Amino acid sequence: MGCQQLAAVTYPNPDVCATVEGNFVPLQVEVNNQEMVNRFGVKWTPTLIVLDPDEREHHRFTGYLPPEDFIAQIMLGKGKAEFNLDRFEQAIQCFQEILSKHPKADAAPEAQYYLGVARYKASDDPKELKKGLESLRRDYPNSEWAKKAQVYALIP
Amino acid sequence: MAKTIEWEKSLATAKEKAKKAKRLILLDFYNSH
After folding, report:
1. Domain boundaries, chain A
2. From the CA of B1, how many Å to the nearest CA of chain A?
């Protein structure tokens, strides 16, 4: 059911199409492909996975999402991949894009958290973590990501 | 006519294209039934 909704609602959306085509090589695999299902440990559909060209997984989500949340999730995946590959400036751009274009998406608080972390990694300035916490407390105070960042309040 | 997503069907081809284009892969496991 979730797959049919993605195909009927989310994938035909022009913004979704442009974001997927502009940032990824899209690959679709039917769940009856047992070799691929075992390879990626897939138990439910739809399952979306962001991989780098060496097949390392950076982000995964399961279930139907409407266009705006879908775009925010895949851009979060791109940002996390860039972050994991030590490309912090590119990661920062992805997280900023989510926050400026999709601030109400469910992925936005996580993007805000990682934006602070990526800025810290890029600058080596711990104050960036504290700034990230302040943004989370202001914009997403009830999110788990605000809780996770609360330790940064201890940074002088 | 509206543009649609052009999905690859093979992981090997997707990896090759991603390597060449320096892009990530978005892998969608779906159930057509």
Report:
1. 2-154
2. 11
Cα B3–Cα A101–Cα A119 angle in degrees, nearest 5: 120
Chain B residue closest in CA terms to A81: B24
**CB within 8 Å of A152: residues ≥ 6 apart:** A116, A126, A129, A130, A132, A133
Domain A2-154 architecture: Alpha Horseshoe (1.25)
Q: Which residue of A lies nearest to B10 if distances are taken between CA atoms?
A: A27
Q: What is the mean pLDDT of chain B?
A: 92
- Chain B residue numbers with beta carbons less than 8 Å from the beta carbon of A48 are 26-29
* Average pLDDT, integer, range B2-22: 94
pTM of the model: 0.95
Q: Which two tokens stand for residue A152?
A: 């940064």
CA–CA separation, A42 and A52 (whole Å)? 18
